[in-house]
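Ex. 9. Protein: Quinolinate synthase.
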Amino acid sequence: MSETLTAPPRLEALYDRVARVVPRMEWEMFADDIAAILDLKRRHRAVILAHNYQTPEIFHCVADIRGDSLALARDAQGLDADVIVMAGVHFMAETAKMMNPDKTVLIPSLQAGCSLADSITAADVRALKRAHPGVPVVTYVNSTADVKAESDICCTSANARHIVESLGVPRVIMIPDEFLAQNVQRDTGVEIITWAGHCEVHERFTPQEIRDWRRDNPGVAVLAHPECPPGVVAEADFSGSTAAMSDFVARGAHDRVLLVTECSMSDNLAAAHPAIDFVRPCNLCPHMKRITLPAIRHALESLTHEVTIPDHLLAGGRRAVERMLAA
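Predicted structure tokens for Quinolinate synthase:
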């Protein structure tokens, strides 16, 4: 990671990346932390991984690797760094640790959890396997290490359909996101045994909201995350992971776009695509928003909070993730 070894970019150049979505007054409050983080990264040979739901000053100004869960899982392998800071939620930090067991992995806030990951335990997975013997378990990466360790293979929203179809079986258990599983079942025809877990951001969207936004914003292209309820996905023009949404926007076929997902995603894309008008429903993820510049700075200053995984869970969870990456 060259950015950890070379001089950091000038602050004014960084502000140019986010000027469209971060007012100058706010930037003045961010600048000291950003400068300190860039220096601390060099001192500790650290890299910062940032999910697409992070705020622009984190996503565009201090992160080294940016993307959706699949991109972060892939790029977390074999990083040229001593320290990895996850600007995301706890299960993402666990995945980074699985892929880099010998590196120090930090999560800036221990409160950065996930309603979806918290909806299921390893004991729940074992009970599902007893109830459906021989049925493979496909586990969304939005899950804890102990749940991954009980699974046959992981998936992300970007590759869920591919992973399910790659197994070549008529029936799978897919956990923990019920809506993602229902959307995959519709697209594949594979019978899917689901779990009633939901993302607290995406489950709040409704089909009527989509119809209302279309009425008030003629010609808008509606992009929905597959964690949304199937009725919401059916109302959208396109459904895909945050990376797929980014690619859709980058193709520039639409000058007005509405993203049915966590609202920092719109801010990050607006910073990168100034010619596009983003209609911004704003369902915030409270867990993602616990990752702030001061929290990242403190994590690098004190090397806290370190993520550890027991060896037996690390091996099982890594195996499920690696199977996904190889599929």
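Check your answer against this statement. The chain has three domains: 2-114+288-302, 117-199, 202-279.
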